[in-house]
Amino acid sequence: MTTSALAIEVDGLCKYYGAHQVLHGVNLTVKPGEKIVVCGPSGSGKSTLIRCLNKLEEHQQGRIRVLGTELNDEIDNINEIRREVGMVFQHFNLFPHLTVLENCVLAPMLVRKIDRKTAEEQAMTYLERVKIPQKAKNYPGELSGGQQQRVAIARALCMKPEIMLFDEPTSALDPEMISEVLDVMIQLAQGGMTMVCVTHEMGFARKVADRVIFMDQGKIVEDAPPADFFDNPQHERSKLFLSQILGH
Amino acid sequence: MTATTEIQAPALNDSLLDSVRRDYFSSVGRTILTLVCLALILSALWFLVNWGLVNAVWFGTPEDCHKAAGACWAVITDRYRLIFFGLYPYEEQWRSALACLAILATVILSCVPFFWSAKRLPVLWALGYGLFYFLMKGGVFGMPVVLETQWGGLALTVFVFSSTVVIGMPLAIVLALLRRSRLPVVSTVTALFIDGIRSLPLLSILFTAAIILPLTLPGFLVGDKLYRVIIGAAVFFAVYQAEIIRSGIQSLPAGQEEAATALGLNYWQTISRIVLPQAFRFALPPTINQVVIAFMETALIVILGFFEITASGNAAFSTGGWKPFHTEVYSFVALIYFVFTYSLSMYGSYLERSMKLGLR
């Protein structure tokens, strides 16, 4: 892997669904160790943006470089990036036919080619870190939403990624379970992980984000440190958004 | 702890008698219906026991049977080897019996989760079918050669059925995956193939395989009629099973493939570890159904001159004065079919129960 000063570089990114354009020339850079929170109204393109970063969505124009590797049509590049970029989904997407432990060792064994024993030991350390080692032998269906999401985080970490992407990780959770997931994410941020989080948890953004990115209609409207963004938003659209989500 | 009033669940002091009274005799209409049905069931049972057990003849000649009022099981005890082995040479029938057991063992072992891996299943099948072939065909270890045209009875039925499924199932998976291809040419051609075969009756496919193919194929590709017919039946099974598997794949939430992709798994790893195991769980009931249909349809090969179990049953009563006792022979053959079909459906429900744990 070529060394690069930047973890993620996005330059003039455009994305269309058929004739409908969802991203209009997005530019974004993320330094190693930086924590970015992406927010914005529904349909603003924030999920599409982070799904482009590991090519779950294909972009039509612009460039994406992740850890110095160009994200183009070359399968080797795509695979290399996917190995180094972990992702956590809104609906957890654990594999229901595998136990928690098997969920965690599958990719390290198949993709990183490490043996089962090492993979299991490593999985247990991450399961301990997300405080759920006692459920290793259970199936995902036997866990609560918050527990499942913590397992999903551990599963992504087992690949030892350089970057973690979070796509609304708490939006599908009952209110009581949000904090257990956020605690894990805060701990991860404090450990120095590079993170890009699409989330509406403004408390989390204030606490750990280095920058908050506000998107609307497929464009980045505001890109500022959380203190500036929350206390002194520059754009009318951001002010309206903040007043709506913080106003009650 | 503060004092809490314990709330008792309403007592379920339902005795068997109470529940019978409630379910079957709670109104005049119900009582009448219950009594009528009971009378029908009892009289049917009475007849069956008298005919099939009490007055039955178990051993003897057709003359003994004519004298008796009950079933003539003597035709089975006299002719069972014809039913089980067809035209297979009499002195060599132990080979057919062993071959049948080899195939049954292969089928049963294939049902055990331990063997469900890309390494173990092919080895098991190669051993099972290899053993069957050498036992049936002979020509090695001093066993005289018996040609495919003389194979028959239960061994043939089980061989044709299991080969159809063993060839047809992998083919079905390939077809289902090709039909989901992102390349429009591949998916369209596969869809046309599947729909094309589905628009043909099985009978016409079997006739084509048995009679028309040899006219068009080069000599070295023709092979025995039996194998051509098995390939035909397997293709027919595969196109239906492909659609069943595809429906199973479509029941998967889109997030499953996305999660596997995001973890860096490649296409085959995603398909074999994430997609297919879950798709088969969703598709299990229709899959078992399709397998049962494949078993019943083996009877069709009789019109191509194969002596499978229905045909050899036919032969069993058509000579030697046994003609009036076709009911007994057909009952016996039906019982064999039932044992197979019922075992398949019991296996299906066992799988459904044991797989439920993972999918809640």
TrEMBL record, chain A:
Any Pfam family matching the protein: ABC_tran
Enzyme Commission code(s) on record: 3.6.3.-
Family named by the database record: Belongs to the ABC transporter superfamily.
Superkingdom field: Bacteria
Keywords from the UniProt entry: ATP-binding, Hydrolase, Nucleotide-binding, Transport
GO molecular function, one term: ATP binding
Name of the featured protein: General L-amino acid transport system ATP-binding protein
Cross-referenced CDD domains: ABC_HisP_GlnQ
Source species: Sinorhizobium kostiense
Enzyme class: hydrolase
Lineage per the UniProt record: Bacteria, Pseudomonadati, Pseudomonadota, Alphaproteobacteria, Hyphomicrobiales
Domain ABC transporter residues, every copy: 8-242
RNA-binding in keyword set: no
